[in-house]
Design brief:
It contains 18 helices and 19 strands. The chain is α/β, with parallel strands linked by helices and 581 residues long. The protein has a five-stranded mixed sheet with strand order 2-1-5-3-4. A hairpin with a 2-residue loop joins strand 14 and strand 15.
Amino acid sequence: MIKARINGITVEVEKGTTILDAARTVQIEIPTLCKHQDLPASAACGICIVKVRGSRKMLRACCTPIEDGQEVITHDPEIIETRRTVVELILSNHPNDCLKCGRNNNCELQTLASDFAIREDVFKNIVREIPKDSTTGTIVLEPSKCIKCGRCVEVCQGMQDVWALSFIDRGVETRISPAGDIQLGESPCVRCGQCSAHCPTGAIFEKDDTIKVWRALQDADKYCVVQIAPSVRVAVGEGFGYEPGTNLTGKIYSMLRRLGFKAVFDTNFSADVTIMEEASEFVERFVHNKGPLPLITTCCPAWVDFMEKYEADMIEHFSSAKSPQQMLSVLAKTYYAEKIGVDPSKIYMVSIMPCTAKKYEITRSEEMFIDGRQNTDVVLTTREFIRMIKQAGINFNGLKDEAPDHILGDYSGAGVIFGATGGVMEAALRTAYYLVTNKNLDKFEFENVRGLKGVKETSITIEGTEVKIAIAHGLGNVEYVINKVKEARANNQPLPYHFIEVMACPGGCVGGGGQPYGVSDDVRMKRAKGLYSDDEGNAVRCSHDNPYVKKLYEEYLEKPLSEKAHHLLHTKYIPKPEYRK
């Protein structure tokens, strides 16, 4: 530990702590634009400059360790004026179209300009005309709004190991672009949206599809239905002043009915169905040797895209089960349509997800269509859903809780924890244990699969046999796990794992690329806690005990992995060797 003084206040912190972080321990906020809690400091913007007594230099607080005995000044007239000038210089290369920007009222640059009372152009405004790139169909790249902070590059290359984004050209010509200056849709981009979640401005944002939903709701020929993903319920409240992790499931159901949806479903229900299929698939492989191990989960479309591009030789290990989103959509247009006597062609499925990659998933292969019709018609991210609620003119905070439509809405505790890293694994293990032993676990919680460690490795014992498990979240952590499997396979060694869960986004879906801005590990943990609390308070804790899931199989699917279940609930994967590293 070292001691120093910041603005006359004594601080005691660990050696190596930056001035920025040390200041926060005594409630002093130094403004930043390029720094994000998830990422290493780049010192690109220069707004966090501070003074150190005895030095003539201004230092960048985000990347400068505080030293023992140091006296730091974070705010004085000269520092404030310098910071204002830095913001003015950034604005001189930035478009003045805030009202039409995807980040209006939620932009870090806009906030700083307001904080520093910048009311006029001090420097001549020179903005390069660089075309917008919407080719992914999920996220939109507007390079003219880029402030060159480097966050998206660090996320894409370091955190996610995708390498779709980079800086090209030099000096004042520097801009953000896919390597080789190609379209983003032609790049290795897996549409995870983490670049948009970490961008401080409107340079990268999700494709907005709310107008499609409004038009569908006004179309008398459409029977509009909707589903919400597990992690949406613990994040949507952030748009209305709630603490991250506040579970607003009942209000969301109520809101969706007020918007005009004829049926309100819950993706947690189909998460339970996913577990029935995926756990059965694991038991088939692990107990009956019907397929190679390890089995790898495939609920995350960004991970599936990554796998098809970079790990295609592992396809045989991938679960063929569709994601919960796709399972619910196909069941709505088959099972539900039959039950209520509605023409399936009239059903319009809207899916509210924490994820930008879900917009891609709905068209990724022919298995995402039935009888020529797309199973999921449109996907909204949590951010889009928040905007839609505000457009509707309904007091969301004042709504009373309602229940979902039970036929595809009632869920177990296992279904809701899908939204957190480790949740799919935990839910699958609860049911896999039951399928092997014909009895439920004494304790449903698997603490070793929870938390934000990048790779979690553990094991459980089922009927005297050890099941070795790995959970990876954030695509940059996947290579370690996959390489261990490949090395063991190449050297004829025992398998390091039997079951692997992968989520593309750090924290899992609670940290998805379409969730409200301001993500950090603290926010991810709060959102995950909200899901685990829902699980603990649920009378039904296992997917196989969900009475509506049982009814689905009895009336329609027969049993997990049946021919009909395979037709409706499973998919195939397509290698993309042109992307291989």
